[in-house]
Amino acid sequence: MTPAGRRIVAAADELFYSRGITAVGVDLIAEHSGVTKRTLYNQFGSKDHLVAICLAERDRRWRSLVRASVDAADTPAGAVTAPFEALRTWTGTSTRGCAFINALAELPDPSHPAHRIAANQKLWLLDLFKELATAAGCSHPATLATQLLVLHEGAVATQPLSLDCVPESAALARVLVRSSAPPRP
Fold this sequence. Notes:
This protein is mainly α and 185 residues long. It is built from ten helices and no strands. The chain is elongated, with a radius of gyration of 18 Å.
């Protein structure tokens, strides 16, 4: 990506997150990134494509943080709840809730490229919970994964209310994992 392209993505990401995708036009993105609209369109083709690129980059950063948390877990059961630890870090830098939930609400058409990225981010987390629960020997890993996703997304969705539900969600997740983990010898 060119330096202008990186500036456009950085400006667009900040604007989409802080103001909303549908509220931000290409004129504002061009102004904030110091390029012309023509440069923006030459680099990305459309606003829809730019939104998708911004969400894909957020998704890459999120997955990297989650993977690092999983890798740092001391036990297989700890790995199952590691995404909640990643969420503690992530929400410390997020003021408007989850960009993926916001995108799903603003872009309800499943054929929109950014909608697909946001939906796939949630499905990836569900699959990761199931994979980790299976590896930890938890009973009913698919059910547990769904329960953990609901807890995780509830903590994310309530973040703009300043309730800080992440610690309570993480504690409840640990209870669920312990109750479904195999007994220790």
